[in-house]
């Protein structure tokens, strides 16, 4: 009788965590702006912020009432009470400077002389005009909803709120005698955190250059908008710095699509669980340093604002970052017939 050949079947050997981690990254590479893999309900935070901004702008235009206060000398008169100020006064199709003051915009007089620190919070919800509102919120939707679906609503809400507040603090250090709105700070916070998320998860995404190009384009458009009256570019700069630091702290691992389980998936599940734990504990030095730096710059900005420090005394040309003078508009507040008494 022929001898039977014995075949020894060995159980699969566990892969090393580092190798498994690299294979997992390569196996789960995705496009940064990939759509259709997340649930719509994961974007409720950004949607809520967008609705609040729209409501705040509608309330601002209702209070402005250019049709009555400026004796119908308004832009787009068909809107009646909600019509806009003349373009020479507000080229962004928005309210008067006094209405922005009344609604809580930042201004040097109110903050330094009257100590109205509550304006640091109210200015975050204001827009200088309809053009500013449309471009800003379109950018927030484009960037913010993707980030929220990618990293979760809680982390993006923290980035949004803290960046907006830090942006208003930086704006308060460079105020002129003109109202300033700080809604762009939150957008640039999202852009900064998007940059950090790309850097932290560089191996995960396949379209990094496209994502960086989109980031740069959105930033340039909104920064150029800040060269017009009332839109504060220092709020944008502060928000971007805050967003970068918070991104390194919070956006350490995106929520990748679930992979299909293979046979013998019990061990695979254990490896994937270990990889997720490793990702959460990854880069502790970078995250710790970024967290400490953010705490220091936030505390320093709060102290500087409370002590009434005016950075314009040390930087005479900084005012041109906020508003470029033109014969079509004024970078300083002018008293007009449509202004509302405060």
TrEMBL record:
GO biological process terms, semicolon-separated: proteolysis
Membrane topology: Multi-pass membrane protein
Renumbered residue ranges of the record's region Disordered: 1-20
Keyword Nucleus: no
Annotated TM spans: 44-63, 124-145, 157-175, 181-202, 209-228, 234-253, 285-309
Subcellular location: Membrane
Domain Peptidase S54 rhomboid, first and last residues per copy: 115-251
Keyword annotations: Hydrolase, Membrane, Protease, Serine protease, Transmembrane, Transmembrane helix
Gene3D superfamilies: Rhomboid-like
Catalytic activity: Cleaves type-1 transmembrane domains using a catalytic dyad composed of serine and histidine that are contributed by different transmembrane domains
The keyword Nucleotide-binding belongs to this UniProt entry's keyword annotation: no
Matching Pfam families: Rhomboid (PF01694)
GO CC terms, sorted: membrane
E.C. numbers: 3.4.21.105
InterPro entries xrefs: Peptidase_S54_rhomboid-like, Peptidase_S54_rhomboid_dom, Rhomboid-like_sf
Enzyme class: hydrolase
GO terms, molecular function: serine-type endopeptidase activity
Membership in a protein family: Belongs to the peptidase S54 family.
Job of this protein: Serine protease involved in intramembrane proteolysis.
Protein name (record): RHOMBOID-like protein
